[in-house]
Amino acid sequence: MAGKFFHKPGAELADRVPPGQHLAKGFPVLTYGETPHIAQADWTLSIMGLAQAKTFTWDEMMALPQVEITADFHCVTTWSKLDVTWRGVRVTDLMAQLVVDPEATHVMLHCYGGYTTNLTLADLVRPENFFAHTLEGEPLPAEHGGPMRLVVPHLYAWKSAKWINGVEFLGAPALGFWERNGYHERGEPWAEERYSDR
């Protein structure tokens, strides 16, 4: 089974595939619970917590600068997919539209369906992170987090929140869904931060 869907990376990919990972031949879908289905016209992104409250509609997000980004994607369940091409809005371009309290140090990401995951503010605002609405030239499918998801390439994929609809700025650390259920608070693939040592 493993050979049919996954294969071990060669030595030439040692600088791109973190320890313990296998390359996926497709793009696996892992979801806890039911998959939300949200029409673009109904989608919104709410900014809350230690920031000036604001809600972005789909059209308002589309009016921000749009970029195409190719990035590697690493799942905590030990598979990786290289060179995934997305289109969306850089986190830094969204942040330029916000007024955030200088006391903010962390964020909680909220999603349709009730999922949450946490990041430090420093991990969120890296220039390679973005809100994706297109995958390989097609509208992002619901099973991959459409109509909009966050993509955080430098951390395990559970931090790349599917079906995102809120960013809550916090003044202290807090734990999201998987973090409360045994996963690592940060999730750095190269350090194999899979599970909590709490």
TrEMBL record:
Q: Which intervals hold domain Oxidoreductase molybdopterin-binding? A: 33-178
Identify the domain of life.
Bacteria
Q: Where are the transmembrane segments?
A: none
Family annotation (Pfam families): Oxidored_molyb
InterPro entries registered for this protein in UniProt: OxRdtase_Mopterin-bd_dom (IPR000572), OxRdtase_Mopterin-bd_sf (IPR036374)
What is this protein called in UniProt?
A: Sulfite oxidase-like oxidoreductase
Classification from the root reads: Bacteria, Bacillati, Cyanobacteriota, Cyanophyceae, Oscillatoriophycideae
